[in-house]
Amino acid sequence: MDFAPSYTPEQEAFRSEVRAWLSEHMPKTGGDLDSDENYRKFRQLGRDLGKRGWLRPTAPKQYGGGGLDVASAIVLYEEMDAYGLPIPPYYDSGGWLGGASILVWGTEEQKQRLLPPIFTGDVVTWQLLTGPEAGSDLAGTKTDARRDGDEYVINGEKIYVGGSHGADQFWTITRTNPDGDRHKNLSWFMIPANLPGITVRPMELLGDGGEGIGAGVKNTVYFDNVRVPAANLVGGENNGWQVASTHLELEHGSGGSVGRNRWFTRALRWANEQQRDGRPLIEDPEARDRLVDIFVLTEISRLFGLRNFWMNRTHQPMTYEGPQSSYFRKLSGLKITEALHSLFGPYALTHDERWDFSEGTLDAYQRSAIVALHPGGTADIQKVIMARRIGMGREERESAGKTVE
Fold first, then answer.
1. How many domains does the chain have?
2. Segment 108-136, tens digit of pLDDT
3. pLDDT value at residue 356
4. Residue 229 belongs to a domain with what CATH number?
5. Which is nearest to 214 in space by CA: 167, 256, 284, 247?
6. Closest CA to 403 of 257, 245, 253
7. How far apart are CA 82 and CA 275, in angstroms?
């Protein structure tokens, strides 16, 4: 069975347009892609994409998006993926998730003011959710926002904040009523990152900060009497859990993804290049078995992402699909690392040039696969959400978070 999307002549003509444009605008880089110099180049690529509406291709035109149909958006993502890049071509998790949440819950004034800079690449936004006291229990946050006239005064601490090279703004969940009922005392703010009282410090962790240019590290962000305009409160005071339902629905996998089967392609290439007992590794029957394992796991994950991308962008009803994709991706990541370890041996996970033909890629992937069990909701949380969505243990099924107006 062929799971590849099919395209009309008009869509293939659009592909040719995109391909030609990217060949002219893709930055020339060298060395570390995440260096300051290269990061600036990819930020500029993002702005150039934004001018054409290609940075947020399915977002409404009136807010800086492209207003494209889902098939054209898939074409764009596929052509960027050919360069090994997502859209946007740098880490902007708060822009992706915060922008989508503002589209659903923001006022018209907020959409007109906050969305165009995100959708055209003028700002980079980090998402600030987890605190020392509340990770998976997001409603337990103790980062407080107290109303003071036309401003809110914010105090608290957020950890595991992904991003390097700095941010322009923070998409942040806070507690606006310390004495209120859980889930009814939360609020979201878009906070300018240059306000007085904000401190950002990198964290040292087992894994890297995430995939993508500009992901870099994880950070701790401190708020010390930070005064934020009340106009930057999104969704209304103490309505933050409803806004979070949109954010988390997308973060848990309902937004989907478009991309090629990269890990299998890498493993296949390495298996052809590496020798075992004087022969190419690919000739070993056990090695081929491990390659099949890797292909099956990575291809299922790719198809889950493509399915969810299509369902989300075409506004299909969704229930368990997002957490299903997230859960499979998290668990299969560990299985893939086991298969890679069996295929290439433990020395490939070192940084010894005699053995590490992957230039650190295998080592980084193994550490990241362990860490990836937690961000965006742990594997156990994904199981709980799936159970609630199909009605297990409850009289009524839990509804998926609202991701469109």
1. 3
2. 999 999 999 999 999 999 999 999 998 88
3. 84
4. 2.40.110.10
5. 167
6. 245
7. 28
